[in-house]
Design goal:
Radius of gyration: 16 Å
Distance between the termini: 57 Å
CATH architecture: 3-Layer(aba) Sandwich
CATH superfamily: Gcn5-related N-acetyltransferase (GNAT)
Helix content: 10-25%
Number of helices: 4
Shape: globular
Number of strands: 9
CATH class: Alpha Beta
Number of domains: 1
Bound molecules: coenzyme A
Largest sheet: 9 strands, mixed
Length: about 170
């Protein structure tokens, strides 16, 4: 007789509207009230992320991870804003963040998008293809440490010409 598996069941899938309450709780637990002041949060406020490019990790049937991509404009060029990326503390360092990142970047590339921008740690996002941006070239409307503004070209040379303020894409 087989004993039950102790390994969690992890499914990475596109988010649906029904996931939103659980994602909201994950955000509250991860970033606390400070999340409302984050530059990227303010850009996303009231703007739906792209459900074809936003994924959740369902861990043992519950939402335990989430990544969102939202359409923005930088200067006069369309781009994507990545974030928040968040994993339930009980399930960190298991590669789930990496899976969500790889899936969202792959889908963005397959769907012909050119460039992704985010505010985050270069040490974490560098291996996914994100680079630091020359200081002041791309700016956020709210407070954002320039050293944490990172960009990822989805095709060779696709990041050229991106400069200016990141704005909402209505
Ligand atoms: C950052 C986060 C999404 C990573 O998710 P995860 O599923 O634990 O990540 P993975 O298992 O794919 O990768 C773990 C690796 O990333 C490293 N890592 C985690 N956060 C890091 C950071 N801020 N800077 C550098 N490395 C980091 C871990 O040390 C680990 O390294 P190892 O593989 O050498 O041991 C998760 O820790 C989290 O939700 N943090 C709080 C929210 C947050 O800061 N989100 C990012 C900003 S929006």
């Amino acid at each position: 007789m087989h004993s039950p598996s102790l390994l969690p069941s992890i499914i990475i899938r596109p988010e649906t509207p029904a996931d939103e309450p659980a994602i909201e709780i994950l955000g509250k637990n991860t970033f606390g009230p400070g999340r409302f002041a984050r530059a990227a949060f303010r850009l996303r406020e009231g703007v739906a992320s792209d459900p074809k490019l936003s994924f959740v990790a369902e861990i043992n049937g519950r939402i335990g991870g989430s990544v969102k991509l939202t359409h923005v404009v930088i200067g006069d060029k369309r781009a994507l804003l990545l974030g928040p990326l968040m994993i339930d503390p009980a399930h960190r360092n298991m590669g789930i963040g990496r899976e969500l990142m790889n899936r969202s970047i792959l889908e963005a590339r397959l769907q012909g998008h050119r460039y992704i921008v985010l505010v985050g740690d270069f040490a974490y996002y560098g291996p996914f293809g994100f680079d630091r941006i020359e200081s002041g070239k791309i700016r956020f409307p709210g407070p954002a440490d320039p050293a944490r503004i990172l960009g990822c070209e989805l095709a060779k040379g696709a990041g050229e010409g991106y400069s200016g303020i990141v704005r909402r894409n209505y």
